Structures are given as structure tokens and as C-alpha cells.
Amino acid sequence: xxxxxxxxxxxxxxxxxxxxxxxxxxxxxxxxxxxxxxxxxxxxxxxxxxxxxxxxxxxxxxxxxxxxxxxxxxxxxxxxxxxxxxxxxxxxxxxxxxxxxxxxxxxxxxxxxxxxxxxxxxxxxxxxxxxxxxxxxxxxxxxxxxxxxxxxxxxxxxxxxxxxxxxxxxxxxxxxxxxxxxxxxxxxxxxxxxxxxxxxxxxxxxxxxxxxxxxxxxxxxxxxxxxxxxxxxxxxxxxxxxxxxxxxxxxxxxxxxxxxxxxxxxxxxxxxxxxxxxxxxxxxxxxxxxxxxxxxxxxxxxxxxxxxxxxxxxxxxxxxxxxxxxxxxxxxxxxxxxxxxxxxxxxxxxxx
Length: 352
Ligand code: GDD
Ligand code: MG
What we know:
The relative contact order is 0.12. The chain starts with a strand and ends in a 6-residue tail after the last strand. It is elongated, with a radius of gyration of 22 Å. Helix 3 packs across helix 5. By secondary structure, it is of the alpha/beta class. It is built from six helices and 28 strands. The protein has two domains: about 1-215, Spore Coat Polysaccharide Biosynthesis Protein SpsA, Chain A; about 240-345, UDP N-Acetylglucosamine Acyltransferase, domain 1. The site of magnesium ion has 4 residues, from loops.
């Protein structure tokens, strides 16, 4: 059985981070995001191949995952000549499929039991099965209404406030029968949410919901991207490098150099080659990427710093995300949810 990972979006809401790093490979701690999804798919014994459906900066992604041999699963890449939307991408990547296929949005992190979703799909002889999850505010998602028998009756993508009739949304995880791809036009942008799902409902085809209320997050905005790190540090989602650790633990790579007169407060993560100098403080919920230097008396707190940054003396980074190779001058302050793109340079004493 094949799984298609939809990973061709531009990641606009994560800009500027996604200008040089496509969303599927933004780092979560020190691993590109798709690793987490591949790990989940590998747990389903029937899945023998993952098809990565790409469009934006595909080369960067192929370089990282190769043919999958290093990960113990076959990976194939299908690159659209232009973005075909979520349904167009499934058609383009899965046109020759003859058996049920798992489709996954390439930006959701979850611990769902995919084998159980497959079982439901088969028991109900569904044409499509969709995973639903409850959220507080459905407006950023696809709202899904079901009937008492667990069939999908209505799908409203990005509902307005007055269209909210349920807190169940599309979790971006489906099992689909390729026989239903006939309605998706070839080579024109088409949306799974706005066109394919409504068409299943209109034609009264077996479209079944699987409700999941365990851990689920879409990492596609700076807030959610930060949240996912917190969730892993707090043990709400169990994943490396925070497995089997006591609460509030600071995870420090053996190749990091922390001065004896620096302060490190967990939970936090400090990667290989990081230097933290005397008087500096790395506070709770900080993630410091490879080779970053934190100089004397600087403070980093509740912030995600990608590799190769330099945070000069007396600087403060709080509630912020820094892309790669950022250079903050002396006594710079960056806070309040700032997101700095790769190679941002801030001169001494800047407040951003
Ligand atoms: N190959 C390809 N081509 N992939 C695409 C394209 C495309 O043209 N457009 C989007 N994708 C991929 C994105 O990379 C992402 O992994 C996934 O499809 C969903 O796109 P997003 O842009 O992240 O959509 P969203 O988060 O606003 O909404 C979707 O996900 C929600 C759950 O997180 C919808 O499916 C909602 O209904 C759903 O609730
Ligand atoms: Mg998304």
C-alpha cells in the first residue's frame, strides 16, 4: 500500500522561515519535520512506499530523504510542474494506483493509529475515510459535519464564524479509493477540500469519519511551530530528543560548550557545537540550533534559534524565532513574537 504525503505548499504563513527552507523540512529540534511523519507511516506494516508530492523547492527535500533506504522505507518523489492544489496533487501522484491509498497533509504532527483508520475504512467499505479532530476555533481549518452513522454530511473549508456548527475539523489524513479520482481533472489546480470532498457528499458515496482526540497539530504558523516544540519539551507529544526524561530537563548535546559561568534552565534543547559563554542564560523553552554562539551576558528565553546564529553580548532574544545565520549585534533586543529570516543582521542596540 502507498501513502501520498502532500508537501508541495509554499508555507506562506511560516515566511520568512520558509523562503530558503520549504515547510516539510523546517527543523523540529534538530530533525526536518517530515521525519516525524515518515516515522508514523513506517509503523503501518502495509505501507511499502511513501510518495512525496512536491512542488516548492523539491531538490532540497530529495537531498535529505533520498530513496528512503536510510530510513527503512521506499520513498518516491513526484514533482508537479506547477502547483495543482491538494486534489490535483493526489491525482498527479496517484493516477496509476489501484488499491486504497493513505493521504497525509505534509504539515500535521499526530500520534494517530493509522492501522485503526484503515480498519474502519475497510469495515465500512468506504470510498473515502477522513480523520477528524476537535479544535477550539475551526476557522483556520476544514469544518466537517457528520451524521449519527459517522458519515460526512457537510465540509466547509475555512468556515466563517457564523458557519461554525461543530468543533470537528479535517485533520488532513485520509484513506481514499483511487476509483474516486475519476472526477479530478488532470493538470488543472483542484482542491480536495473545496471540490473533491463536497462531490463525494453530493453523490452520496460512502464517506466515513474517524474521530481522533489525541495529539494533533498543524505546524504551519509561527505560533503552532513554537507550540510543537513546547509540546515535545513538556511531554505532551513524545518524541526525540525528549524521550524518557524527567520533566523540565535541559537536553544538551555532548558537543556543545557551555561555560561554567553560564546558566541553562530546562526544559530546553542545545544542539551540537553551540557555544554559550560566561554570564549568558539559556532559559526555559529555548531551542538552540547547531553551531550557534551565545556570547557573554546574552539571554535567550522561550525562543527557537536555527543553526549558525550569533547572539552577541548583552543581547536578549525572547518569544521569537530566528532563521539560520542570523547575526544579532551587541545589546540587541528581539521579542514579542518576532520571526527573523535567514541571515538577518541587526546592528548593535537595535530593538526589534
Ligand atoms: N503537492 C502539493 N501541491 N501539495 C500542496 C499543494 C499543491 O498545490 N497545496 C497545498 N499542498 C500541501 C501543503 O504543503 C500542506 O502539507 C497540505 O497540502 C495542506 O495545505 P495547507 O496550505 O497547509 O492547508 P491548510 O493548513 O490551510 O488546510 C488544510 O489542512 C487543515 C489541517 O491542518 C486543509 O486540508 C484543511 O481542511 C485542514 O483542516
Ligand atoms: Mg496546513
